[in-house]
Amino acid sequence: ENVKILQGSTLKGHYSSIPSALANAGSGQTVVAASGTHSVSANTTVASGVTLQINGGANINFSGSYKLMVYGSLAISGSAEQHVTIDGKSYSRTGYGDAMILVIQTGSANIQYTDFKNAAYQLTFWQNSGSGAVENCTFTNFGYTTDSKAVSAYYSTGAVIISNSTFTGSGSKGMGVYAINTGTNVTISGNSFNNCRVGIRCYSSDAFLTGNTIQNSYYYGIQSDNVTDDAEYRDNSISGNTSSYGVYLNSSSPYLMYNFIHECKVLINSGSPEFATPYSEGLGHRGYNTITNASAPLIKVQNYSSPFLGYYGGDWEDGGYNSIYETDLPHIYAVNHSFVMADNNYWGSEGPANMADGTSTISDENPLQSNPNPLYKRVASDGYILNSTNQFNKDTNSLNNPIDEQAFKNAVASGFKSDYIMAKEILKRLVDNNSTSKYPPLAIVMYHYFTKKELADEESTRDEQIVKGELTSLLNELINRANDDRLRPFGFKFCALENVLDRNYDGMITCYDQIINDYPNSIHELNGLYDKIVYYVEIQNDFDTAKKLLSRMDDAYPEDELTRHAHILMGEDVNLHKPGQPQQPQTTAETPLEFKLKPAVPNPFNSITTIAYQLPESGYVELSIYTVLGQKVATLVSEKQPAGTYNVVWNASNFANGVYLYRLQTDNGLQITKKLILLK
Length: 680
Prior knowledge:
single chain; 680 residues; alpha/beta; Serine Threonine Protein Phosphatase 5, Tetratricopeptide repeat; Immunoglobulin-like; 13-stranded parallel beta sheet; 49 strands; 20% helix; globular
């Protein structure tokens, strides 16, 4: 009988178990569980007005798939000397609403020095308006399924702080912390995440992520969807698998500053994140992020994105001071109507080497000559050292128009000088003219960007409703254009984005349905399918509908990276290798008689082609891909190989259309070069 009920300091009775004591406790009373072993053998409720206090040294064992539901107060008071243990005993649990401990509605929790273990879902704050604090805890053995989540904050409105705790996953299974449909009321600070499928996941959550260490994530260190610029990701250290993503931002625009992202990459899809400090901090909007030492590209930007990493206008400098270096080229790769502002940054001793397709633009002016973040300098791993002085063509296959280009630059300059009216007037003219250049779509992207920037500018004097109304007017004008107008789908895309940021999911679905119906076999359909899958998985938990949408992605876009990310969302394991990385060379047993490089099959090709070659004797071999200007863009083979016939697959799904050269050379001076044509 080590469980008792107290009314103030007055003892009201002893009980044999926590459930029996709680069943007899009334408002204003406290149930105290002393050190020793306790069992939760039924679904148990901490009623409103009741407090459950669990003291250091207690071991709480769940003897089935039962839950402790907290509507009152929970105080788990472990100490550095005496932890509390919460053990799920590996019983089956089906979702974060089925966690061992649920803090619900007005319930609150203060959990200190507690070891959670052996449950797929361990602690959930469920639509709670009460406060929650989790500090100095450990979470282990939660990786039972690909959907497992150690701690979740679901539609929480109360302050939830998760700090100084350790999360140890199981590789491809188990997520550390999951925040869904919350505001800035959630703080995830000073924690350590290791070997999780995903370290921290934010869906429509503006959680603050500060001072976390995230290592060896199987897919993503931080994964975010539909996050606004109210969110901050500050001073996090993310490292691990060189081909995984340290940060994956989809339709998201958080601030990122002072982060160290090492041996993993960054992916930005349909977003406008700011790698910068807020203006209110008085640091010139500088980011001081380090992104280094991973497979290329270090940062991939795609599908209507406009990330800010710095701007330089000659007489006007804004932001920058990020360090992006030590990789195979390129540093940044931008595709599908994306504009990357990346001025005033450090790119290593050889300067920026970035690449954009014909619809996108990267600005990397005024590169810094020294590393502004020297404390984060690391020795590069073998194979990922910047190993070429060649610079990428920043505008491959560009649909350039000098007049449009200058107008676009003028608009960007005006916007960063806070002359938002002028910036948007110029951008609106580019949209209205709708030339065949790449700039009208980019003008829509930046019109949306500067609208958000003006709304966030505390010194702006214009009425918020007028600013929002201008954006709405532009988007309505676009969606009412003829179906064959190339700018019309951009209107629907940004309408969908505005709806989801306002938590109007029905409006988002309506926009994406229109895109999918009107623009099959396009990047617009691809993104619409992906965001609908995210919605049905995260909000509706409707995997059947998501599976039907994924089937369309598999049929129409089997090689696109977004399709692989969609499979991960569905709980599947996929090979998320670096873009363009080949499969291991396959060899045949018969020794060939001559040194030979065979024609690639197919050629011309759409994303994937196979290159075969013969070696009559063993030796060091290099097979590389070059532009027609002689710039090396990929190394497929670089090793000593025995005699034989080899087949190498090149996945060029993230390279621009055009003519490439593939060259085979050996250490004894033999060399053959042939031509490839990539047509998507």
